[in-house]
Amino acid sequence: MAESDCRKNLIAAAVPLFAAKGLNGVSVRELAGAAGVNLSMISYYFGGKEGLYAAVLTEQFAILGKLEEIEQMEIDTLQKFELYVRATVSRYRSNPYLLRFYTSELTNPTACFETIIKPAIKRVVQMLLETFADGLSGRKFRDDLNPTDTVLALAGMINFYFLLEPATAELVDHSPERDEQLIRHIMDIFTRGVLR
Amino acid sequence: MAESDCRKNLIAAAVPLFAAKGLNGVSVRELAGAAGVNLSMISYYFGGKEGLYAAVLTEQFAILGKLEEIEQMEIDTLQKFELYVRATVSRYRSNPYLLRFYTSELTNPTACFETIIKPAIKRVVQMLLETFADGLSGRKFRDDLNPTDTVLALAGMINFYFLLEPATAELVDHSPERDEQLIRHIMDIFTRGVLR
DNA sequence: ATCCTTCGTTCAAACGTTTGATCAGTTTTA
DNA sequence: TAAAACTGATCAAACGTTTGAACGAAGGAT
Hints:
Chain A has helices at 5-21, 28-35, 40-46, 49-64, 68-72, 77-94, 98-107, 112-137, 147-163, 165-168, 179-194. Chain A has 196 residues and is an all-alpha fold.
């Protein structure tokens, strides 16, 4: 076998378990069992259950970091916002656990919140704020809008749609086939809201 | 002492504890200690820890129910939406734990999710949908908008602002003094988005 | 070539602690 | 005095972590 299948298996098995039940909702025996690995391997490789949880969160949020590529692009400000929206949606689709981890940490923070989640969220919000400032200085956007409220409104429209899925699945069509429609809808509202 | 101070104290003490750490993050001893009550009182009054949790959630979501008063009012559709927004914001201010409980259940559902949280959320979404349908039939609103996406966008703008507070407190002014500005901002974006 | 040691990895077993729940008994209330 | 409210002690089960032994691979030393 390759070097440390244990480590890999543990993280892979831990992702859906931690996402569904939270740090305190899963036992080390359940984690080890799901990974097909001896339970002491958790302490051996990660120093304990919290270490495994931190490793999972680190891996999950590494995916989020690549939003910065969009910020550097030399395109229209509104197009940039649309790219953010598209990137977020496709991220949630390819990784259905990401949103769970970060809302779980927002409501029931663990030790990882200050070290991993909070900096990651602040970075995204700051990125959106800078893009909005670009649009403002380009005289494209209304200057009577509060910038933070505006970018949080955009973020809220996207994130809340996915957050609410477990409760509204019977009421709203959340299928990926409708994502394009959702993106256009959000950008429609947002554009009418911010343009001069 | 009055009849069953125990029961009252337990719920009062359990609200912030469960909200901060979730069902599995708090022990019965911690709950009883915070309430200044013998630990066996939890089983005596609520049949166990989960029973206390269910009682807390029931109490929390009873507050939510009064949104229906707004639906029955005979006022302009857009004003009705603004009242929803105002009611939600003032609810989150007077009860800072409500949002935590319901997002916690959305990400890490317990037995209460199907019985309490999901029906409550569905009821709110349905209410918003009906109001939007009123606006549609009154030819006030654009008829090319997906109704569910529209009402979820409105809900997302409000809820996400409060959900993100622990992470963005240093970046965004979340003080209650700014609530009026927030409400106007959200209604501004929403109005421009949906009006014909 | 053979032996011995060391290393990283894995294992079953046991560790001490904490968990949620229960019970017999006592106090309070009506 | 009977019912309701409450207490402290105790329970088995589950918790996360640690332990010491076992394993194959790798590297010198003889």
